[in-house]
């Protein structure tokens, strides 16, 4: 387990109800409190380049409420096909509210729902007792009253190198580790109310993350609270942004501190998380290594247009609707011809617009400039056809050669620079 310096982050609440006051489960599992934490190792943390973290949840430095994704998860209809929502429901706030088929807690939430546990990002809730995500940056948060908290995970399909996670208590230093069945997140806290954010950090790019049962994933069962219970929190009304892209959006190779993909990748340090945090927005971070407009991604992930409407194969995305979409695709199509690329990119833009009819869509020039003329032309064609809510963003000059890990993926500073350049454009068009 590694300890990192604090970094501003929008806290999004993930709901697992308590069971009998001492433990909380997302899915009716037993409270499993075994398992020891690994040794703590200091790691140099990077700042977010001025991201304000001015969110309505538990943010860095404040321990304010993880009052974000207020989804309830007990006793509802299946919602497996997308469109089940979460905000506004009463929460199963006391003993043992367990997963009963209600869909993704961040689905379609407009704020106001009160729940003890909340989810952000794309998740699959169809497996009894387990919430599954394949996306770095997806996270859960909760507020709890007690002296410690641990997370329980399902590792039944896990393979080495396993998924990595990060967590933060009361807006303090971020910790990171490989997943374990039971993960103590904090012990010996002062008695009282605390906030936790628990995030998928990185997955193995080459392992199956599309065809169930997925291997490269985070499978969350629940939280166990020592000396207390989870405290229900309301989900605020906030701007909702979806970031669509490839491994750059995912946060692959943002750091090079280990030889495996789960440690190269850090969704929290990538520009989607940093940008959303600065805006106080709720976000989803949808990125896959090797994926492009014309080519499939690693881990059995299909090409961009064919993956948009899915959490993963057989699991359609839910009814969550973005206010803003930031699209960054084309890097992995750098060797394609315009003849092949442009019709497929146009199709993809149409699919995104169909999914979010009223969203402001910002289409970025890939940071490396790949396919820029084709992308600009297709965006211009849609605008000329009447889509006034779509915008091409020229990223020329945002990054230089020193801002990449190996010439293709931005490093920590590169993601910070991209965030700093993107923020004023987003603010001008919100």
Mean pLDDT, all residues: 80
Q: What's the alpha carbon Rg, rounded to whole Å?
A: 20 Å
Runs with pLDDT <50, length 5+? 5-110
What is the number of helical segments per DSSP (H or I, 4+ residues)? Answer: 7
- Cα(first) to Cα(last) distance is 39 Å
Number of strands: 23
Strand content: 15-25%
Overall geometry comes to globular
- The CATH superfamily of one domain turns out to be SGNH hydrolase
Could you say which structural class the secondary elements and strand pairing correspond to?
alpha+beta
What is the third-level CATH name, the topology of one domain?
A: Rossmann fold
CATH architecture of one domain: 3-Layer(aba) Sandwich
The biggest sheet amounts to: 8 strands, mixed
Name of the top-level CATH class of one domain: Alpha Beta
Q: Helix and strand succession? A: EEEEEEEEEEEEEEEEEHHHEHEEEHEHEH
């Amino acid at each position: 387990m590694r300890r990192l310096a604090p970094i501003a982050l929008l806290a999004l609440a993930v709901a697992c109800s308590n069971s009998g006051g001492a433990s909380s489960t997302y899915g009716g599992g037993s409270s499993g409190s075994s398992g020891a934490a690994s040794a703590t190792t200091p790691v140099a943390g990077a700042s977010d380049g001025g991201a304000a973290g001015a969110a309505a949840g538990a943010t860095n430095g404040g321990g304010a409420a993880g009052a974000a994704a207020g989804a309830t998860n007990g006793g509802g209809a299946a919602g497996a096909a997308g469109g089940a929502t979460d905000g506004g429901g009463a929460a199963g706030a006391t003993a043992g509210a367990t997963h009963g088929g209600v869909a993704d807690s961040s689905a379609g939430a407009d704020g106001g729902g009160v729940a003890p546990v909340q989810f952000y990002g794309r998740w699959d809730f169809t497996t009894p007792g387990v919430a599954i995500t394949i996306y770095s940056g997806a996270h859960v948060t909760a507020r709890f009253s007690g002296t410690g908290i641990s997370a329980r995970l399902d590792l039944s399909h896990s393979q080495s190198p396993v998924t990595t996670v990060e967590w933060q208590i009361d807006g303090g230093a971020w910790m990171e580790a490989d997943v374990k069945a039971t993960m103590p997140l904090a012990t010996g806290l002062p008695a009282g109310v605390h906030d936790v954010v628990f995030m998928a950090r990185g997955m193995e790019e080459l392992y199956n993350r599309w065809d169930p049962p997925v291997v490269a994933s985070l499978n969350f069962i629940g939280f166990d609270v020592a000396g207390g219970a989870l405290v229900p929190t309301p989900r605020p009304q906030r701007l909702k942004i979806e970031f669509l892209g490839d491994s750059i959006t995912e946060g692959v190779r943002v750091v090079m501190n280990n030889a495996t993909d789960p440690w190269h990748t850090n969704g929290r340090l990538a520009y989607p998380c940093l940008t959303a945090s600065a805006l106080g927005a709720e976000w989803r971070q949808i990125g896959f290594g090797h994926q492009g407009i014309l080519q499939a991604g690693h881990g059995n992930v299909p090409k961009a247009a064919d993956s948009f409407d899915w959490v993963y194969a057989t699991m359609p995305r839910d009814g969550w609707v973005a206010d803003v979409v930031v699209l960054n695709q084309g890097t992995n199509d750098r060797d394609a011809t315009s003849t092949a690329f442009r019709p497929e990119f146009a199709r993809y833009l149409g699919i995104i617009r169909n999914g979010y009819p009223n969203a402001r869509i910002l289409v970025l020039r890939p940071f490396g400039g790949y396919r820029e003329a084709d992308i600009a032309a297709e965006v211009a064609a849609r605008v000329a056809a009447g889509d006034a809510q779509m915008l091409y963003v020229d990223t020329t000059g945002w990054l230089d050669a020193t801002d990449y890990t190996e010439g293709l993926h931005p490093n920590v500073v590169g993601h910070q620079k991209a965030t700093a350049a993107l923020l004023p454009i987003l603010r001008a068009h919100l």
